[in-house]
Design brief:
This protein is an all-beta fold. It is 0% helix and 73% strand. It contains no helices and eight strands. An eight-stranded antiparallel β-barrel has the order 1-2-3-4-5-6-7-8. InterPro entries: DUF3224, SO1590-like_sf. This is DUF3224 domain-containing protein.
Length: 123
């Protein structure tokens, strides 16, 4: 199954002088086929040659296709001067409530300042 829509995101930098990477709190509001919110943390690192990496764990509380519950998204992004890649997977067995059997992955795209998602999932 596929769910699509948009999301609003707020990233709040966290001060941590002892670590070589940046850390941010994530707050999202999902619109469209997924109605709900996401909260999490992101750790990222960028170096001068244009390479960057980020990992994030996001806990989603939502209703999808009339079913409510929670699940965890695992984000992994890589960037270099030639392009970027992003992988977002639903953590196996992380679903609760009516989403307890959820599995799949998510794609995101930003266009003209709007964030779009496509969630490919099975229940």
């Amino acid at each position: 199954m596929t769910a699509t829509g948009t999301f609003d995101v707020s990233l709040t930098p966290q001060k941590d002088d002892s670590a070589p990477a940046g850390r941010m709190l994530i707050n999202k509001t999902y619109h469209g086929d997924v109605i709900g919110s996401g909260v999490g943390q992101m750790v990222s690192k960028r170096i001068e040659n244009g390479h960057a990496v980020y990992f994030a764990i996001e806990e989603v509380t939502a209703t999808i296709d009339g079913k409510s519950g929670t699940f965890t998204l695992l984000h992994k992004g890589l960037m270099n001067p030639d392009g970027q890649s992003l992988s977002i997977e639903i953590m196996p067995t992380s679903g609760t409530g009516q989403l307890s059997s959820i599995s799949g992955n998510c794609e995101i795209e930003q266009k003209d300042g709007v964030h779009f998602y496509t969630l490919h999932y099975q229940l």
